[in-house]
């Protein structure tokens, strides 16, 4: 089955028939106090589920060779090549190529909202921690940028001992953000991070879509790959409140008397229109967009991100091979 | 019950207003923090099946207020009998004081004064005591409190007073208002026994309030607290007056001095003096009229030669619209 068939369907992940069933209950996950342990639980649960998965379309694909060095894992030795040519080469897979990943986390006041057990900020930072853990496991360099109305934390992408711990500590700091300035933060990121990489923005994106165009376009023009992970509370999607109340904007403090029953349809219409604008913008700029609510299992998001990553690596590998930049020992030995 | 009872009763239906108001004004239960209001819009309050009545105690108070107001307006129309004990009413002591000085001789002035007196008598109540007094240089009691008290009905009292008024006319004396008021106050103080002590005392003064009335002695009078003066002013048709007065003979001459006084406000300033015989008005004047010009507010003395004795007994001033004091009578000594 072609993983691309259901990509970006209203920002939802792939259909359940394609996703391996290794979901971890979010509320249970959030009971783990340590952020690093939480991330580890998600990643290891995901990986173990991956091995049991019948989804053969997913794999870490072979991309390249490199000469064997003492100490390399013999599991990746190309034994056929050794038998044919008596040469020792280690298979390089797509996940072994160096990747710079920039995790951009929205820490504004709006992320503190949450009706259920999990607030968006907690879900988002767990998601960011999970991605950081995963990419570190894949030997990729991971950096972090947190922002509200200005940049709070900036950690350059590194792959070195202790770097993941530093990221976890930064993520674990209690957010005290007020307003949101996605545009300014992304623009600053584009000017700060010169080396191309993968930018994963974790935010609720509760800002006019037009404000996102310029910074995202700048990132794409600099050669970055961009993934938008929109984290929302389920009530922000459905607005299934019942009682009329004074609704207070947590960032601006503005309030409105709202009767949810009478305005629910209009709310959902406006919400869908806004999301369509973001999707259209993403499609136009070649950006991947996923929407997740805090009641959804986190590993599903992880699956979508990783799958997307693998697909893009496969494309770049085939392009590199066609351009003659990759050496295939098997071809060389013939 | 009358038409207004029903109307005020319908006003009680106004309790519907606080009921509707409490249903429409849906007080939101608390506040809800939300991430962003960008997709929200304000909702108007509405009346639905799920509307509830908030603030029951406040609603009941509002309904009670409106109901009580409606009942309060309705209640006077629930007929009840009310007995009024006339004996419990306290009457007044009323002294009617009428000016009959010379200034009241002006045309129409005395008639107006009588009319005001009659109106005052008509306004009296059955439990009132009254007296009727006329005054000029001295006061004169026409009808005292004792006499009115002995009379049984108010109507009889009025008839007696009116009969006495018809016999009165203004005189030629000056106005001593102070003496009249002092006598009335003393009369009020001694009128009746202790049972009259609670009655209020009114003095109804009917006068043209002419300048020159004597009022200085009132400064030394300690005015009683329960005595009220009601001044019924008699308006005069004309302002301004002139009169004349024959003075003594001029020494070593047959002429007599005549003083003509023209009071302030009189528009006329040109007068004529004519000797007359009051018993024979058709006889021609012995002398031609003498023209005299006197500015208003001033006096002038003229020396005139008196005609032969027996021919004239008066001198007349013409040119003044107020004519009651324009003739001065005299007796010539026999020569």
Concise synopsis of the structure shown:
The complex is a heterodimer of chains A (334) and B (335). Chain A has 11 helices and 10 strands. With 334 residues, chain A is of the alpha/beta class.
Query: How far apart are the termini of chain A?
Result: 33 Å
- Class computed from helices, strands and strand pairing of chain B: alpha/beta
Rg over CA atoms of chain B: 38 Å
Overall pLDDT confidence of chain A = 78
In total, the number of strands of chain B is 13
Helix content of chain B: 25-40%
What can you see in these coordinates?
The complex is a heterodimer of chains A (334) and B (335). In chain A, the strands form three sheets. Chain A has a six-stranded mixed beta sheet, sandwiched between helices. In chain A, a hairpin with a 5-residue loop joins strand 8 and strand 9 (255-258). Chain A has helices at residues 26-30, 35-52, 79-85, 120-137, 163-172, 182-192, 209-221, 234-238, 260-285, 298-322, 329-333, and strands spanning 62-67, 89-93, 100-106, 141-147, 151-158, 198-203, 225-232, 245-249, 255-258, 288-293. In chain A, 43% of the residues lie in helices and 19% in strands. Chain B has 335 residues and is of the alpha/beta class. Chain B contains seven helices and 13 strands. In chain B, the strands form three sheets. Chain B has a five-stranded mixed beta sheet with strand order 4-3-2-5-6. In chain B, helix 1 runs antiparallel to helix 3 (56-74) and helix 4 (109-122) runs antiparallel to helix 6 (154-166). The chains are: A alpha/beta (334), B alpha/beta (335). Chains A and B meet through strand 8, strand 9 and helix 9 of A and strand 1 of B. Strand 8 of chain A pairs parallel with strand 1 (31-34) of chain B, so a sheet runs across the interface.
């Amino acid at each position: 089955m072609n993983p691309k068939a259901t990509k970006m369907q209203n920002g939802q992940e792939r259909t359940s028939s394609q996703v391996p069933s290794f979901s971890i209950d979010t509320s249970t996950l959030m009971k783990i106090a340590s952020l690093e342990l939480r991330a580890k639980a998600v990643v290891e649960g995901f990986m173990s589920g991956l091995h049991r998965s019948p989804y053969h379309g997913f794999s870490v694909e072979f991309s390249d060779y490199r000469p064997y060095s003492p100490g390399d894992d013999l599991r990746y030795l190309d034994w056929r090549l050794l038998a044919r040519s008596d040469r020792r080469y280690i298979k390089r897979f797509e996940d072994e190529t160096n990747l710079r990943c920039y995790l951009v986390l929205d820490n504004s006041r709006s992320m503190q909202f949450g009706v259920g057990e999990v607030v968006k900020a907690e879900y988002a930072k767990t998601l960011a921690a999970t991605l950081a853990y995963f990419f570190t496991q894949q030997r990729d360099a991971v950096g972090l940028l947190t922002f509200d109305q200005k940049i709070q934390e900036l950690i350059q992408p590194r792959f070195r001992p202790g770097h993941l711990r530093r990221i976890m500590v930064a993520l674990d700091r209690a957010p005290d953000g007020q307003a949101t300035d996605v545009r300014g933060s992304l623009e600053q990121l584009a000017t700060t991070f010169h080396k191309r990489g993968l930018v994963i923005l974790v935010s609720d994106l509760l800002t006019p879509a037009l404000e996102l165009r310029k910074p995202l376009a700048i990132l794409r023009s600099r050669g970055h790959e961009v993934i938008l992970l929109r984290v929302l509370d389920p009530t922000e999607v459905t607005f299934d409140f019942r009682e009329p109340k004074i609704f207070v904007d947590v960032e601006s403090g503005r309030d409105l008397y709202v009767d949810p029953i009478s305005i629910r349809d209009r709310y959902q219409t406006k919400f869908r229109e806004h999301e369509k604008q973001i999707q259209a913008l993403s499609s136009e700029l070649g950006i991947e967009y996923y929407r997740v609510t805090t009641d959804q299992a986190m590993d599903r998001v992880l699956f979508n991100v990783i799958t997307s990553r693998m697909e893009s690596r496969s494309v770049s590998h085939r392009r590199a091979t066609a351009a003659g930049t990759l050496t295939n020992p098997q071809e060389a030995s013939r | 019950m009358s038409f207004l009872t029903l109307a005020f009763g319908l006003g009680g239906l106004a309790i519907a207003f606080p009921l509707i108001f409490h249903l429409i004004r849906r007080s939101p239960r608390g506040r809800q923090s939300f991430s962003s209001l960008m997709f929200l819009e304000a909702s108007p309050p509405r009346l639905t099946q799920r509307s509830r009545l908030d603030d029951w105690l406040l609603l009941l108070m509002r309904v009670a207020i409106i109901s009580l107001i409606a009942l309060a307006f309705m209640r006077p129309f629930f007929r009840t009998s009310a007995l009024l004990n006339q004996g419990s009413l306290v009457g007044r002591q009323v002294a009617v004081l009428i000016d009959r000085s010379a200034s009241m001789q002006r045309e129409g002035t005395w008639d107006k004064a009588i009319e005001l007196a009659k109106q005052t008598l008509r306004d009296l109540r059955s439990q009132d005591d009254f007296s009727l007094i006329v005054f000029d240089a001295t006061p004169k009691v026409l009808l005292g409190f004792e006499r009115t008290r002995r009379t049984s009905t108010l109507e009889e009292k009025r008839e007696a007073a009116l009969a006495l008024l018809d016999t009165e006319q203004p005189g030629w004396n000056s106005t001593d208002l102070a003496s009249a008021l002092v006598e009335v106050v003393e009369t009020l103080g001694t009128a009746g026994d202790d049972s009259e002590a609670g009655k209020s005392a009114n003095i109804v003064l009917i006068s043209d309030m002419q300048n020159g009335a004597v009022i200085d002695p009132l400064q030394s009078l300690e005015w009683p607290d329960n005595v009220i003066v009601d001044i019924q002013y008699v308006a005069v048709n004309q302002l301004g007056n002139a009169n004349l007065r024959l003075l003594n003979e001029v020494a070593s001459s047959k002429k007599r001095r005549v003083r003509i006084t023209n009071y302030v406000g009189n528009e006329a300033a040109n007068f004529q003096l004519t000797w007359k015989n009051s018993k024979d008005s058709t006889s021609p004047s012995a002398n031609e009229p003498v023209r005299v010009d006197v500015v208003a507010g001033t006096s002038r003395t003229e020396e005139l030669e008196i005609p032969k004795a027996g021919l004239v007994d008066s001198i007349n001033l013409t040119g003044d619209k107020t004519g009651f004091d324009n003739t001065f009578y005299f007796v010539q000594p026999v020569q």
